[in-house]
Every structure is written in structure tokens, then in C-alpha cells.
What we know:
- By secondary structure, the protein is mainly β.
- It has a single domain (2-241), classed as Beta Barrel (Porin), CATH 2.40.160.
- It contains 1 helix and 10 strands.
- An 8-stranded antiparallel β-barrel has the order 1-4-5-6-7-8-9-10.
- A hairpin with a 4-residue loop joins strand 2 (60-63) and strand 3.
Amino acid sequence: xxxxxxxxxxxxxxxxxxxxxxxxxxxxxxxxxxxxxxxxxxxxxxxxxxxxxxxxxxxxxxxxxxxxxxxxxxxxxxxxxxxxxxxxxxxxxxxxxxxxxxxxxxxxxxxxxxxxxxxxxxxxxxxxxxxxxxxxxxxxxxxxxxxxxxxxxxxxxxxxxxxxxxxxxxxxxxxxxxxxxxxxxxxxxxxxxxxxxxxxxxxxxxxxxxxxxxxxxxxxxxxxxxxxxxxxxxxxxxxxxxx
Length: 243
């Protein structure tokens, strides 16, 4: 009986104490809002435009009817312009497809005497339309990290596709002119650069090494092909985000 009375007294004291504590709180307590979870920058589509200067190099040119393989002894120089459409995931990864017009003049070889080809300096003029599918990874330099407007970033990338080549050879003075010819070839590229994210607009400056597997002229007086050429480009680009 004594235990029952003691338990009743403890319960009553707890009720009275709880009412006293509750009386100390204000009638209207502030509402604490819990912010939504930030899942980071979301993906967006973009348009891009690029322009740059380039230098073309290859090891040698093969003239099967001469016959002979001749070392290339002079670089070609030119420019490129292009456009593309892409998507960035918001995690640093982005993808795009690009179309570039590339012009380059002056890649040369010197043919010695005693061959079926006119002796002297032969120069290549190249015009290519290059279609590539590309993937990149952007990484932030600032504490804010990638994807925050106002942030500097770097990037690396790679692409693969096809080059549609239009080639003309300029022979030595007085030699018969080579005819013009067109061909298609596998192409690939590696890219690296830096940029600045302004928000809706992103600017970058980078280097691109463009590989063209085969540049050839089969319709010429003396057909030839140049395998494994590399075009080294310095390019500036602008990207415009849709959202």
C-alpha cells in the first residue's frame, strides 16, 4: 500500500513540474526552417563557337609512282573556326559535337633530282571540314569549385570523328600543276586548357592536337599520301548556356 501511495505522489509531482516548465516558454515559439538539400549545379545544354591558329606537321609524304618516300621539311600554318552543341552534367563532365573548318598552307617537301617528279619544293594547301564527338572534364581552381559563376577552371578532353579533306599541291615554278582532290579520313583530338565561368557564358583558351590519319591526292599527276599528320592549335571558345 505504501508503494502505491509513493508512486502516486511521484506522478503528481511530475505533472505539476511539467506545467511549471511549460509556463516559462513564450506563448509563440519561433519556427525553425530547415533548408532544402543542395544537390549541386544541375545540367544544361549549350552552344559553342571557337576560333584559333594552327600549325600542321607530318613526318613524310609517300609518292607511290615516283616511287619514293620524301621527308617533310617545312611546317604549314593556318587557322580554324568552328561551332558545336553540347550538354554539361553539372559534375564537371560535359559532351559536345563540333564542326570545324580548317585551313592550312605551306606544309612542304623538297624533291631531289632524278625522280619522275619535278625537282624542287612542293607545298600542300589543305582545307578540311572536321566533325568530332568530344568529352571533357572541367575542374575548378577556386575554393568555390566548378560550376559556381565567377570561378576559374581547367579542363582536359578528347574527341573522335572524321575529316573531309580538300588538298592542292603547289609545285615548283614551271612544273605541271597538280590537280585538286578530295578524300575522307579518320580524325581524333586531345584538348587541354583553362577557362572562366561567368554564369550563362563561359570562356576558355586551350590547346588542341588534331590527328588526321590520311591526307591524300589520288587524282594528281603524281598521286601521294601523307599519313599520321598532326595539327597543333591554340583556340579560344565561348559557350552559351540555355539554362
